[in-house]
Amino acid sequence: PLTANGGSMSQMSDQEKLRFLLSHWVSHNGEHAAEYKSWADRFEESGQEEAVAELTAAIQGMDSVNRHLLAALNLLGGSVEQDGGDPHHSHHH
User: Fold this and answer.
1) Is the pTM of this model over 0.70?
2) If the chain, 93 residues long, is cut into consecutive pieces of 10 residues, what is the mean pLDDT of each piece?
3) For the residues of the chain, what is the DSSP string, one character each?
């Protein structure tokens, strides 16, 4: 499988691989946070306030995790463009 720059993952340095993975993780975490928010919104008026509060806390935690991942990514040189996604990692929801 090729990366956005035409090379394979095996030809990438560890730093390039980590930059690629960090970009993917931040994006994927954002997708999960949006899903948590959707469910929290559905249950907001259902009398399940504690569950909604836990989902909201999870969203805030995900935001915190992403801030740290983005800080690491910036320290390593910033985002690596992802054409076809990470060839070693796939999620199907």
Assistant:
1) yes
2) 57 91 97 97 93 97 98 93 47 49
3) -B-TTS-BGGGS-HHHHHHHHHHHHHHHHHHHHHHHHHHHHHHTTTT-HHHHHHHHHHHHHHHHHHHHHHHHHHHTTS----SS--TT-----
